Amino acid sequence: MDSYIAKGLVANVDDLIAGDEELSKNDYLQNVWDAYRVDGKLYYVIPSFYISTMVGKESIFGDRTSITMEELQTIRDSMPEGTALFSDITRDSFLYTMMNYCGSDFVDVSTGKCAFDTDNFVAMLAYAGELPVEYGEDYWGEDYWNNYESQYREDRTLLDTISISNIRDLNGTINGVFGEDISFVGFPTDGDMGSVLWAGNRMYALSAKSKNLDGAWEFLRYYLTQEYQDKIQEQEYNLPV
């Protein structure tokens, strides 16, 4: 898409909304759309979103919105011996998760520059070295599910990875999984925000060269109308913009 946008082949959605008699950009969560802007312009129709993050007890992590890998290990080391940062994670799955959500800390895709010598990345590798390559069959014993359900409440595991796509499930995480207020710590990063925002199930672009741009917009604008936004939870199981 970036190459199409650079060549002027994708319509500017900001202009389409500005020219719409019913829709106004002030009615939508601009920070969601800002995450997908290219050089300050919006080229996508984004009706919904969800957030991926790591959460832990506020009584342990405070009200922080980001944390480094070194800080995580310091907190873990202050807990009783045997306390885990994450549940059921192997060396490969940990590194995959970190690169998936924190990769932009180490790789600048616009320039191709990589930085795998930062303190945060080195700390991730050191922690990965502590993890098992795989779990043996005895790990999944008769008490596994009983222990799994109580691990966060009893502080045996500190962080859970969740996707926030509706309030009901979030309420279940707070009151059911942890049993108290939680902190949205996010994934380990040197930045000031560790959570990741994603566009929902539907994300559209329009051809700037189309002879039927007005007709295409008339179709796609429906996803931004009050009628569709009111039933996002039924249609997509995400949060409306």
Query: What share of residues are in beta strands?
Result: 5-15%
- Low-pLDDT residue intervals, each spanning 5 or more residues: none
Q: Mean pLDDT, as a whole number?
A: 93
- Judging from the principal axes of the Cα atoms, what is the shape? globular
Q: How many helical elements?
A: 12
> How many domains?
2
CATH topology of the largest domain: D-Maltodextrin-Binding Protein, domain 2
Helix percentage: 25-40%
Radius of gyration: 21 Å
CATH structural class of the largest domain: Alpha Beta
Order of helices and strands: HHHEHHHEEHHEHEEHHHE
Major β-sheet profile: 5 strands, antiparallel
Structural class: alpha+beta
Number of strands: 7
Terminal-residue CA separation: 22 Å
What is the CATH architecture annotation of the largest domain?
3-Layer(aba) Sandwich
InterPro entries: SBP (IPR006059)
Pfam families: SBP_bac_8
Protein name: Extracellular solute-binding protein family 1
